[in-house]
Amino acid sequence: MTHRGQAQLAIWSDIEPGQETDYLHWLTREHVLERVGVDGFLSGRVFRAEAGGKRRFFITYELQDAGVLAGPSYLARLNAPTPWSQRTMPILQNFARGGGPVVARAGLGNGSVVAPLRLDLAAAGLQDAGAQQALVQKVAGLDAVAQVWLMQVDAAGTGVQTKEKSMRRSVEGVFDGVLVVEALHAAGAQAALDGLLGRELAGAGVSDPQLFSASFQLDRRLAGLDGAN
């Protein structure tokens, strides 16, 4: 029986428009496949937006559990980047990365448009399980929302120094938690986002609220990898 992973890894980065073709080929022909081949990685999803002339991407990986972040299989990949990765890492701008356990989730399936919000859990009043679950349940009940999940960043697991990290010119952004609203269309995602920013998350230190559209998804089982969950 297949079970949903208990953790997520969330990544943001910008690139220049002229670099997009090679970047997308790297993601879809090598990088995401490489990542879902790591022990404990279950799937990878890529989302895209345009902002200020840049091409902005949000990538999230479903993980078996948070221990994968500092596990030997993942660290081995991070410390042995491929030649294509070595060319790509230095072009990434406004890079932010955090992974950890999913502390609350509601809804079914995946949406085609997502609003991923980096936030301060304490400022948002989301430090206890009851408040966390109440919020995701409320948002998941909104029109055209498929799923909502809240991830708390494991600072120790995310912060391990690696060769790949040292290659990026952009300083890695640090954040406490991630709330992701997955909707059926942009209007539904925007309505949920406006409501959150105007009410529940007002003053919660939300960073860079923006909508992203689905571009690519790869599940470990569909990649034909041994040991799939």
Task: Write structural notes for this entry.
With 229 residues, this protein is α+β, with helices and mostly antiparallel strands. The protein has one domain (7-219): Alpha-Beta Plaits (2-Layer Sandwich), CATH 3.30.70. The protein has helices at 20-36, 72-78, 83-88, 129-140, 155-158, 163-167, 186-198; strands spanning 7-15, 41-51, 54-63, 93-107, 113-119, 145-152, 177-183, 212-219. It has an eight-stranded antiparallel barrel. A hairpin with a 2-residue loop joins strand 2 and strand 3 (54-63). The longest helix is centred in the N-terminal third of the chain and has 17 residues, at 20-36.
Features:
229 residues, Alpha-Beta Plaits, 7 helices
Strand content: 25-35%
Q: What kind of assembly state do the chains in view correspond to? A: single chain
| Rg from Cα | 17 Å
In the predicted model, the low-confidence regions spanning at least 5 consecutive residues are none
By CATH, the topology is Alpha-Beta Plaits
| Sheet with the most strands, sense and barrel status | 8 strands, antiparallel, barrel
Secondary structure class reads alpha+beta
Number of helices: 7
Distance between the termini: 8 Å
Overall pLDDT metric: 90
Task: Give the second-level CATH assignment, the architecture.
Answer: 2-Layer Sandwich
Coarse morphology: globular
Determine the fraction of residues in helical runs and give it as a percent range.
25-40%
What is the CATH top level name?
A: Alpha Beta
The number of distinct β-strands equals 8
Order of helices and strands: EHEEHHEEHEHHEHE
